[in-house]
Amino acid sequence: MFDDIQATQRRFRDAGVRQSNAMDQLVHRAVFGSTEERELARWLLWEIGQETGNRPASIHDLYLARGRGETPVFTTPAINVRVLGYDTGRAIFRAAKKLGGGAGGIERARSEMADSDQRPAEYTAVMIGAALREGFSGPVFVQGDHVQVNAKKYAADPETELSAIRTLIEEELHAGFFNIDVDTSTLVDLSKGSLDEQQRTNYELSAQLTKYIRDRQPKGVTVSVGGEIGEVGSKNSDVHELKAFMDGYNRTLKKLGNYVGLSKISVQTGTSHGGVVLPDGSIAKVQLDLEALKALSHDAQKKYGMGGAVQHGASTLPRDAFGSFKACNAIEIHLATNFQSLVFDHPKLPADLRSEYKEWVKAECKDEWKKGDSEEQFIYKMRKKAIGPFKRRMWEMSEDVRAAIGADLEKTFTFLFEQLGIAKTREHVARFVKAPHLTHDSPREAAVAAPDDADAGE
User: Fold this and answer.
1) What would the pLDDT profile of 144-184 be if each residue is shown by its tens digit?
2) Phi and psi angles of residue 78, each rounded to the nearest 5 degrees, phi first
3) Domain range holding 63?
4) Which domain CATH number covers 142?
5) Cα separation of 222 and 332, whole Å?
């Protein structure tokens, strides 16, 4: 495939080739090839995407337009693709193409890079390949989810932890992650006497990291930066905390220079990452504070000029909950665990593979088995750590198994996209999103990889 790079590039200018198993082979090399093959394949996928318009892009301007009321109301799904990456990505883009949807995002959290064995450069290449394979038209919104400061590590050595975050930002920008959620909400101190004091470290570091991003974003790109006022799974957020954070953030950012601020704000309204698993392995019902979400999104838009509020930990909610997010004017929801569960629990998954990953979890993660947890609870919580070790096995399952799983994923994504109102958003993406042509003369060496942190985010 790589004997003549220019000839390979010319070959993939043919849509028929892009939408054939030739693309499957190219993406496979981008993930499992030798070091040289991976670099070449990822470079080719980037360049082909640049030519076809499947370019990594920032959703910043679309979000601000949405906050100003210049688009119909929609809630962007930010999908964490953990397991069976290429097939899941293809299912996402099939559903989006079918519905005329363009305002959807694909994201990767700091903690998941180790668990799923997917660094940013690989992740972007796979998602571009999935879009190309399905003939999807439009930019690809790749997002760094939970670029999160680990509170324990920060308390022990602030500069080392912040250096890790800065390195991660550079790695993500290098890979085309032009949407980055800065999460220093782990440093909110509710023991302080005033809201400003509680949020001070959070808003000061969020502003500093925003400046860091702005100083390094590519020419022609305004990265969509998100902040966070309440750590997911802890105390619910309210409009007073939003005011304390945003007023402090804007003051700090102004002192740092004339920088563009946030496009959105993540809040806590009652969910938790992965849901709360019961002893039988089912998920407990969540008491979601929709009125709080609505009020927070309103103030984020009207008082601070953002797109709105972001809801985390939503994929395990009941199906009838998803229409509520658009009604509450939420700008974005983050979805992950349910898609992972669909793959792991799929009836077509080979029985020997199912048995092996469970035995691996029980052997390799036994030190994390919490007292009182049933085996079902333990495996549900820990099986995400099997994604990396079993990645190649799952990618190379038979075509009929992967097709069956992909079809069910597509049905799930189609339902969610309809409920969230992103059908027929492609025209609004075309109007507000400008993705500059960012070509590279030769394969790019990967940026220095940031330290992994399995405790950060979902």
Assistant:
1) 998 999 999 999 999 999 999 999 999 999 999 999 999 99
2) -105, 110
3) 54-336+409-432
4) 3.20.20.70
5) 18
- Tell me how far apart the alpha carbons of residues 246 and 253 are, in angstroms, rounded to a whole number: 10
Per DSSP, which regions of 322-406 are E strands? 332-335
φ, ψ of residue 73 in degrees (nearest 5): -75, 130
Is residue 224 one of the residues assigned to a domain? Answer: yes
In a domain, 29, yes or no: no
| Cβ-based neighbours of 206, under 8 Å, separated by 6 or more | 182, 184, 227, 228, 245, 249, 262
Q: pTM of the full predicted structure?
A: 0.93
Q: What's the number of domains the chain is made of?
A: 1
Spatial separation of the C-alpha atoms in residues 66 and 254, rounded to whole Å: 24
Q: Name residue 76's beta-bridge partners.
A: 332
Strand extents, DSSP E, 279-409: 309-311, 332-335
341 is a domain residue: no
Give the position of tokens 């394949």: 41
Q: Is the pLDDT of residue 57 over 80?
A: yes
CA distances from 129 to 1, 41, 115, 366 (A): 16, 10, 22, 37
What pLDDT shows up at residue 131?
98
Average pLDDT of the residues of the chain: 91
Query: Token digits for 64?
Result: 């601000």
Q: Give residue for tokens 């290429």.
A: 86
